[in-house]
Design brief:
Oligomer: single chain
Strand content: 15-25%
Strand order of the largest sheet: 1-2-3-4-5-6-7-8
Number of strands: 8
Mean pLDDT: 97
Number of helices: 9
Largest sheet: 8 strands, parallel
Structural class: alpha/beta
Distance between the termini: 21 Å
Low-confidence stretches: none
Length: about 260
């Protein structure tokens, strides 16, 4: 059905205001699908609206740990969104300690409270989490390990924009969660070791567009259309043929985001 699946983009962001329809139409022609991601209530609504209009678009709904600190996750506000048939994940949510204010303990607790609410929400609605994690892996992994013991396999999660070392990847695999890789793997050799290490059964490709464009588009606005470059690089790093990697990544995507409830 699709040749490529970009599992994390932000097509509702203003960066696409001038040519959003053209990008989405070109994606359709090139058989590229994406999950467009909410970072708060309004962008979650935008994501669902886009997914409703276009068959090859899907939505994730949730509250980013740091992008909108004035908002608190209210389950009632998200109910109609999570029950939409094109919503396939909760997030992006998680912990972000890279931008802490002068009172870090208060902010850390606020983020943990918001994250826990979304973990429970994801489990209640049988959706995987789209995890955002910066400088907070010990806390994120400890919390998810605790919740995994409580909820078992009902709790599913993908770590988006994964750029951490092997020991972190190993802990994520131990929990049977997945990781998705972005444009930086096409130009930063320090990520090749972890790309080789993570099995295709626990790996996906994403653009995080409009951010972090891959080579040969580096420095330009990113697009879900460029996910092909990331898949090519994964195949090159792993020493496998492109078609087999495309198929394996698609199988992982379907397993994580389209598992029957």
């Amino acid at each position: 059905m699709y040749d490529y699946f970009d599992i994390h983009s932000h097509l509702d962001f203003k960066d696409f205001d001038l040519d959003r329809d053209q990008v989405i139409e070109e994606m359709r022609k090139q058989k590229v699908a994406t999950i467009t991601i909410g970072v708060d209530l309004q962008t979650s609504r935008n994501a669902v609206e886009l997914a409703t209009k276009h068959a090859h678009l899907y939505a994730a709904v949730g509250l980013h740990p740091a992008d909108n600190a004035t908002e608190s996750f209210n389950e009632a506000d998200y109910l109609v969104l999570v029950n939409h048939p094109k919503t396939v994940a909760i997030g992006e949510c998680g912990l972000d300690y890279a931008r802490l204010p002068e009172s870090p303990d208060i902010e850390k607790q606020r983020q943990k409270d918001e994250f826990e609410k979304q973990i429970a929400f994801a489990v209640a609605h049988s959706k995987p989490l789209m995890i955002h994690c910066r400088d907070a892996y010990p806390d994120v992994l400890a919390l998810l390990a605790s919740k995994k013991r409580e909820y078992g396999d009902v709790l599913r999660a993908n770590f988006h924009f994964f750029t951490s070392p092997l020991d972190i990847a190993a802990q994520i695999l131990e929990l049977d969660f997945t990781m998705s890789f972005t444009g930086p793997i096409t130009f930063a050799p320090q990520y090749q070791e972890v790309v080789r290490y993570v099995p295709l059964s626990h790996m996906m490709a994403e653009t995080d567009s409009p951010f972090a464009a891959p080579v040969p588009y580096r420095g330009k606005r990113n697009s879900p259309l460029y996910v092909e470059e990331i898949v090519k690089k994964i195949a090159e790093i792993k020493g496998k043929d492109l078609e087999s990697v495309k198929q394996a990544l698609m199988e992982t995507t379907l397993k994580v985001f389209f598992r029957p409830s």
